[in-house]
Amino acid sequence: MGACSLQSFRITVQVNSETGRPRRIAAAVRVGIQSLEPALTSDLLSILRQPAAQQPDWEDDAQIHSVRQTLTGRPGLVGETDVRTLRRGLAQVSAGAAELIQAGDCAEDPGECGEADVARRIAVLDLLAGAMERLGRRPVVRVGRIAGQFAKPRSRPTEYVGGIELPVYRGHLVNGPKPVAEERRPDPLRLVTGYLAASEIMGHLDRHRAAHPRVPVWTSHEALVLDYELPLVRRTESGDLLLTSTHWPWIGERTRQVDGAHVALLAKVVNPVAVKVGPDIDPAELIELCLRLDPDRTPGRLTLIIRMGADTIAERLPALVRAVRSAGHPVVWLNDPMHGNTVVTERGYKTRYVRTLRREVAAFRAVLAEAGEHPGGVHLETTPDQVTECVFDTWEADRVGEVYTSFCDPRLTVEQALLVLAAWDAEVAPDAWTAAEAGSGSAHQATGGQST
User: Fold this and answer.
1) Which helix or strand (DSSP H or E) is residue 13 part of?
2) Tens of pLDDT along 275-304?
3) Where does this protein hold phosphoenolpyruvate (predicted)?
4) Which end of the chain is more exposed for a tag (fewer CB within 10 A), N or C?
5) Cβ contact 143:218 at 8 Å
6) At what angle do helices 414-422 and 354-371 cross, to 10 degrees?
7) DSSP class of residue 231?
């Protein structure tokens, strides 16, 4: 697993004597987290009866009910004060007074929740934020894909491994990555494991925030598995609903249905929220989403994470920007150049080419500038490790897979992420890097500094 010991917790599991399967779980967690009233009422549970895409097919209804009750009784992971502080920071981004970097693992490993693991990810965010500050000459809000990015939507429910059809890996919150049937079975107890890991990570981040109050790192993840998110909704003293699983939840491209459960949940909470926006959405549908998630048109409430692909964004984004502007929603415009530019190499590895990512970032900035809107920042999938999951361009495709440790999609190394962020400078063309310079930022680092 990793360096996470979870020594701060005590877990008690009751086992069904007939089947040997766990049927009830109780967990004692570290003290000191703000205590708020659980809000898992029948009204909130009714969200589960709405259309909900990408949900696990749990086998044991009694067990998932028990896990929901366990999570309902646990302390929230974030507090109202911090959430409102982040929301004010995002309002500064929407006003053009600040910028934003959101980065971290594609799919987190809950085993990597130790202090050293968290420190390495904070260091990546600090480096990227520093680069953005130099380019944009504005303060940068730091947000990690951290402390809860344990679940992944997938394009298909099963895959074939060695000729055997298996359920696809959906993140450690649902099942395991090993291609064996038992590991791929959705296990409700993983929701508690994810909560415990997220709580330990939050503890490390809380201490970092206390020591570095001017550059706090906030948490975010895709609010995907409703059986995890709903039990962690709490009612504040003022009567508002707060999603305490993370500071900043987002809705993915595959779960952003206007009449769906994910939109219904995030429409109810006071957290700042975000939604991924792909190339197939039309302006009318986007405005419907904005009205559901930001009916009061409040700065800092809603972020639109644009993930369209380098070859599509210049054509599709302008109409959306015009529509949102006309409707009066003061959104944060964020670019995710990762998810619209994933390709598969001849050897079967998913990868992303840094040059292509740079083109999307540059096009995003150009569209927003032409419309008179503020480009708020960038959303990246990154790792502090020296991997070869992404490469600079097609001529390096054979290198993909030499060091490939991602559980799901390919991530950028720190050097590659900095190359992508260099395109944030409006005065630098996205293809300004020569092949030699690209090699020093990707192939060179992947070989530990040896010549290639």
Assistant:
1) strand 10-15
2) 999 999 999 999 999 999 999 999 999 999
3) 145, 253-254, 276, 307
4) C
5) yes
6) 30
7) G
Cite the annotated binding site by residue number: 106, 145, 253-254, 276, 307, 339, 381, 409
Instruction: Write the pLDDT tens digit of every residue in 364-375.
Output: 999 999 999 999
> How many CB atoms lie under 10 A from the CB of residue 213?
8
Q: DSSP secondary structure string, 156-213? A: SSEEEETTEEEEPP--TTT--SSSSHHHHS--THHHHHHHHHHHHHHHHHHHHHHH-T
Task: For each of the domains in the chain, give its residue range(s) and CATH number, in order of start.
Answer: 1-98+107-270 (3.20.20.70), 272-278+293-371+378-452 (3.20.20.70)
Backbone angles phi and psi of 375, in degrees to 5:
-70, 115
Place of tokens 């987290």: 33
Q: Residues forming the annotated binding site for Mn(2+)?
A: 106, 339, 381, 409
What residues contact 132, with CB distance under 8 A and at least 6 apart?
99, 101, 140, 377, 378, 421, 424
The Cα 287–Cα 290 span in angstroms is 5
Tens digits of residue pLDDT in 317-350 = 999 999 999 999 999 999 999 999 999 999 999 9
Using DSSP, state whether 83 is helix, strand or coil: helix
Backbone angles phi, psi at 14, to 5 degrees: -95, 135
In this predicted structure, the answer to whether residue 405 has a pLDDT above a threshold of 80 is: yes
Tokens standing for residue 395 = 């001529």
Q: How far is CA 123 from CA 117, 204, 338, 383, in A?
A: 10, 13, 21, 11
pLDDT score, position 26: 42
Q: Point out the annotated binding site for phosphoenolpyruvate.
A: 145, 253-254, 276, 307
| Per-residue pLDDT band at 272 (split at 50, 70, 90) | very high
